[in-house]
Design a protein that fits this description.
Layout (H helix, E strand, L loop, with lengths): L1 E6 L4 E8 L2 E8 L4 H15 L9 E7 L3 H18 L3 E5 H9 L21 E9 L2 E10 L2 E4 L4 E3 L1 H13 L2 H6 L5 E4 L2 H4 L1 H11 L4 H10 L9 H13 L22 H10 L1
Parallel strand pairs: 1-4, 4-5, 6-10
Antiparallel strand pairs: 1-2, 2-3, 6-7, 7-8, 7-9
Length: about 280
Amino acid sequence: MRVLALDTSTEALSVALSVDGHCRSFDEAGGPRASQRLLPLCAELLRTAGLQFADLDLIGMGAGPGAFTGLRTAASAAQGLAYALHLPVARVDTLMAQAETAFALLHSDGTVLPDPVQAEPDTVVLVANDARMGELYWELFRAQTSGWQSLHRPTVQRPEHAVLAWAEVLADLPEHLETGVLPRLLACGNAWSEHADALSAAFASHASDNPRLFALNRAVLRAVACTPSAAAVARLSLQQHAAGLTVSAALAQPIYVRDKVALTTAERELARAAL
């Protein structure tokens, strides 16, 4: 199967081509350049493989959450290609793709890696990225032999609220309810550097009397800094296709977790006055 995967949900631009489980990818700086570079980079990737757009079977897109403009860029490209080529689209959760980028579980063909990087089955992975306006996007996943299981839907919150929400999700894990023991915890994303002060203060305030947050803070201190790779989007797209979860071009919409994308002038002035 031939899958073209795209992700422009962060400051990076990533495209990948998976052909019968063998993947090649191009990655470069994105941001404002992404809308101009995305399709030419896809064409270049296909050309290096001796293929054309008409040879594709599936389009995979990093659907979000992420930067509003970046999500629209990937969705517009995916929709345009899918309409023109009459192809299905896999809408991949970008935070899941980020977990798969940092701690790959599966080969491109969906078979289990013999030695997954740190994330053995039942490991819990926290993915969190800067969402601007003093907030972060996050989602918690459990690693399974069949792939990633989301333990909480993608959410955007202020760091101090996110920390408490993480503690609640961990408290509800079956093994914790039964034995009080937590699974291995890992973390990835850029929230740890972008919100270092707020997260440190929140952990310091609550971790001393909450063993779940103490354990999570240790994972955060070793967090993997990465962005979602299109190679991971391609692997997850193949899983969606196998499960019958792809959508038509018309339904290839981004995953938004908030409608507001910028502070008002008054809000920015209030924030400056508080410093």
